[in-house]
Amino acid sequence: MTDTQPVVVPIRDDDAAENPVMESEGVYAWFGDHLVLGDINLTFRRGQVTALIGPSGCGKSTFLRILNRLHEMTPSAAFAGKVMFDGEDVYGPGVHPTELRRKVGMVFQKANPFPAMTVYDNVLAGLTFTNKRPRKADDIVERSLRRAGLWNEVQKRLKDPGGALSGGQQQRLCIARSLAVDPEVLLMDEPCSALDPGSTRRIEETITEIADDVTIVIVTHNMQQAARVAQRCAFFLAEDGNPGRIVEEGTTDQIFHAPLDPKTADYVEGRFG
């Protein structure tokens, strides 16, 4: 596959719409007195990739962090609304954030492996930190690295420090670390923004390969990437001093080729943003 050849995104005609894995209902978010998101309602379909697109500063990454309760870790941050995961309000009483984050994993814009920890131990770190001593650790490491498209490159370097890998390899190591705990949802905040085209292509291939098993929500400013990997897109926009909102949400084909709102067409065609 060349860097310019598109990744084929399958259209899944199943009961995903009737059986969502996550939903947001009337989500608002603040930093101090500043309202950054207003009335976000979005459904994430099981086994599909949803791309959150829109200009910088419209609240996409904030919304992503709300989905697994990282937003509340920011001083002055506040939240209103509901986020449902498998039918349960993740902000409800009795829901432990650490356990939620095991089921709803996160890959950040900048790769963040533990640099002095070996590649092997990096993969198992999520299980170790949740006090789950893995049985068949070798199998978990190999399976996770294979799913992240990294096994062939590091199988002889498992004892090397994670910080010794290239930038693209480090990002895929972080994906492997997230996959090792078998999440149901994987949130990805611009995972390829700092990577070369080859590394970007490999991560996009990984996204496509694991989407049958893991629901993926990805923030991206790369319209070609959204078109390649996502079945659905949600276009966020903040303008005229108003908080970020969803202008339009739908299938990727509809958003890119038959948008209902002229602002959506202007954005995906590169006329602003």
Note the main attributes of this structure.
Rossmann fold, six-stranded mixed beta sheet, alpha/beta, disordered N terminus, 273 residues, 10 helices
Structure, described:
With 273 residues, this protein is an alpha/beta fold. The protein has one domain: P-loop containing nucleotide triphosphate hydrolases (Rossmann fold), CATH 3.40.50.300. The chain contains ten helices and ten strands. The chain has helices spanning 60-67, 97-103, 119-129, 137-147, 151-154, 167-179, 197-210, 223-229, 252-257, 262-268, and strands at 20-31, 34-45, 49-53, 77-85, 88-89, 104-107, 185-189, 215-219, 232-237, 245-251. Strands 6-7-8-3-9-10 form a six-stranded mixed beta sheet, sandwiched between helices. Strand 4 (77-85) and strand 5 form a beta hairpin. Helix 3 packs parallel to helix 6 (167-179) and helix 4 crosses helix 6. It starts with 19 loop residues before the first strand and ends in a 5-residue tail after the last helix. The model is unreliable at 1-16 (pLDDT under 50).
